[in-house]
Amino acid sequence: MLRYRRFIRQFVWLAALTVNPVFALDKTQVTVGPATFQAEIAQTPDARQRGLMFRRELPSNQGMLFVQPPGPAVFWMKNTYIPLDLLYFDAEGRLAQIVAEVPPCKTLNCPVYPSHTATVRYILEINAGEAARRGIQVGDSLRLAPQPSP
Fold it and tell me: Which of 37, 49, 77, 88 is the S-S candidate for 105 at Cβ 3.0 to 4.6 Å?
């Protein structure tokens, strides 16, 4: 019985690590036009693949920044429970496209949301409607806060 309880505790702890933002990725301050967010940074392939999957909420001042080699970007909302705005930035950090009010997907056949440009370097996910509420527009610049040295 004790072994079973220990297993359950370890399982719950590991599950919390995968879905709880407290144990999430590094954060940085990002500014887009007039708006500033605290964004988790998804730089590795695993972090980019997981994204905001399984999250039940995202505070209005937070988001997730995906950093990828310049190229096309395609996102989907499988296992993402929060409606989001997707902001696609080019290699120079200019906002090239806003995909607004993307709904969560609860089926196996989730639609995809491709970029219209082939040179996407950054993608910022924020709560649905936040781009419009904060006056974010195509052409705005992405500014990242300097990271402290190790």
Answer: 77
Note whether 32 and 87 are within 8 A (CB). Answer: yes
111-121 pLDDT, tens digit per residue, is 999 999 889 99
- Element holding 36 (H helix, E strand): strand 35-42
Residue 6 lies in a domain: no
Q: Let me know if residue 3 belongs to a domain.
A: no
Q: What is the CATH number of the domain that holds 63?
A: 2.60.120.1140
At 74-113, the pLDDT tens digits run: 998 888 889 999 999 999 999 999 999 999 988 888 999 9
Residue 18 in domain: no
- Cα radius of gyration (the chain): 17
SS3 of 126, please? Answer: strand
Please answer whether residues 85 and 114 qualify as being in contact, where contact means their C-beta atoms are separated by less than 8 angstroms.
no
Residue 114 domain boundaries: 25-144
Share of the chain above pLDDT 70, in %: 79
Which residues share a beta bridge with 144?
Answer: 30
